[in-house]
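Per reviewer request, we include the raw input and output of the structure prediction for the construct analysed in the revised manuscript.
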Amino acid sequence: MADMRCYMIVIADLTDRERFLAGYARVVPELVARYGGRYVLRGSGGLFVEGGWAGSPSALVSEWPSREAALRFWNSAEYADAKQLREGTGRFQVLLIDSPPWAEGAGP
C-alpha cells in the first residue's frame, strides 16, 4: 500500500485580499515546497451550499507526504514569520486530514 498522504485544507474569508496577496501569498508557496508540500487547489469566489460562514470564501488544498511533514511546515519558525503577514487580512479555518487507504488507489 502507498504511504498515507495528508491534506491541509484552508477556507478563508479575505477582508484585505490585496495585502494578503502582496505579503503572505508571495512568501508561503516557496515554504510549502521546501517542506515537501504541493498545492492541489487554490481558488477564490467559492459558494457554501451548506453550513457556510463566509459570503465568497477562498479555498486552498495542499498535499503533504505525511501529517508529520505538514506539521513540520506549520510549526516551523519560517512559517511563524510568514503567518504574521496574514494577520488582519481575514478569517481562516485550517484542517489537516489524512487520506484514507482507498484514496490511494485501493478502491473503497
